[in-house]
Amino acid sequence: MPYTPIVATLGYVLSPDRRRVLMIHRNARPGDQHLGKYNGLGGKIERDEDVVAGMRREIREEAGIECDSLRLRGTVSWPGFGRNGEDWLGFVFVIDAWHGTPLTANPEGTLEWVEADRVLELPLWEGDRQFLPLVFDDDPRAFHGVMPYRNGAMQSWSYSRV
């Protein structure tokens, strides 16, 4: 069976001093699959855009800022992650430089600057705890992982770096 995932972006915006990360606290929509959790910014790629254009658009829409510099840190395949078991494939970025004034909230929730070394203390998807250290480490190589989900629960995690 061919793998036909929903393609998406996930971005972590760094503060100018690189000590904090802009996270969304998903607290605005009852019934949100992510309700109560913190996450990076991002969303689905549109049919006519590449992943970088999609990441820039999502940051603009969700945080009200423009990306000046972003780095692809890796990809994650999430088979079975969707509310109805849909497969997702995410391109994970760090946004190193940007301009504008970040929003404090959007329709999904509150935007909060979090100390980078405290991100793993937040209420996150359990799977995020597996790949987030790779997003923020000093290894210049991108990671490429797979994290199957079943009934809303992570089943396993494996990755390669190149």
Task: Describe the fold and architecture.
This protein has 162 residues and is mostly beta strands. 14% of the residues lie in helices and 41% in strands. It has two helices and twelve strands, in the order ββββαββββαββββ. A hairpin with a 5-residue loop joins strand 1 and strand 2. The two termini are 27 Å apart.
Keyphrases for this structure?
162 residues; mainly beta; Nucleoside Triphosphate Pyrophosphohydrolase; 12 strands; 14% helix
CATH H-tier superfamily: Nucleoside Triphosphate Pyrophosphohydrolase
What percentage of residues falls in helices of 4 or more residues? 10-25%
**Average pLDDT reading:** 95
CATH architecture, by name, is: Alpha-Beta Complex
Gap between N and C termini: 27 Å
Which SSEs are present, and which pair or pack?
Layout: E1 6-14, E2 20-25, E3 38-39, E4 41-44, H1 51-63, E5 66-78, E6 88-99, E7 105-106, E8 109-115, H2 128-136, E9 143-146, E10 149-150, E11 153-154, E12 158-161
Parallel strand pairs: 1-6, 5-9
Antiparallel strand pairs: 1-2, 1-4, 2-3, 2-8, 5-6, 7-8, 9-12, 10-11
Task: Give a quick summary of the entry.
This protein is mainly beta.
